[in-house]
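re the bet — no i am not wrong, look at it urself. input seq straight from the record:
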Amino acid sequence: MQGLGTGPSEVVIVENHSAGTTRPDGGTYGTVGSATMTVAGSGFTATNLTIANDFDEAANASQPGHQAVALHLNADRSVLRDVRLLGDQDTFLVGGNARSYVRNSYVEGTVDFIFGDGVAVMHSSQIHEKRATGGPITAARTPASRQYGFLFYRCNLTSSAAAGSSSLGRPWGPDAQVLYRESTLGAHIDTGQPWTNMSSNTWQNARFREYRNNGPGSGSGGNRPQLTDAQAADYTPQRYLAGTDGWNPVG
């Protein structure tokens, strides 16, 4: 899918269902069913367009089920370039079948807005927390059997939220794997406690790491596990995406 405008904002695919929105049959959509777009075919590519869910959680505060997915990507060997993914809670769902490479793109949301049990490499992309009170960026559910989950490589984390109001993520599953590598972390990231718990899943037992980040939200210490230089050799974009077939969209 390729947008024919001069930029990704000129072609917009949009819906506004949330998990709690009532369907015509009287049921509700649920998180997965709320997706504006669901992609399951292997080898999917998208460029120069926007996929959005414009459900407004603030305007529907009394409604339960604010999860509102823009893109549910459950397709192996998927590439998104120059794409915008817009939403509030649960913007980008990475399904278990997905190996996805997202480059030079923009993802925004409020809570857990990049989540799921698949593999996603965000490369040179902007990750924007849009809620004034901040929130957790990721909620990974990486299976214990899988080495790789989410990688943010040379990304830029931005927000107008208050300093220290946001976290890098929380573990939807106990073995969640997330790495922020060589990225610029804005002041909205809590430098003292950048990872948080989710239900009974603790961030300490998850596979959360950083490596050579910079910016006002970066730091080190006991609450910020870091990769060593030797370990970092095994956590490149190419390693995340190679699988058993050697797929390499990075170049």
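see?? The chain is about 5% helix and 35% strand. told u. also Residues 211 and 229 are 8 Å apart (CA to CA). so pay up
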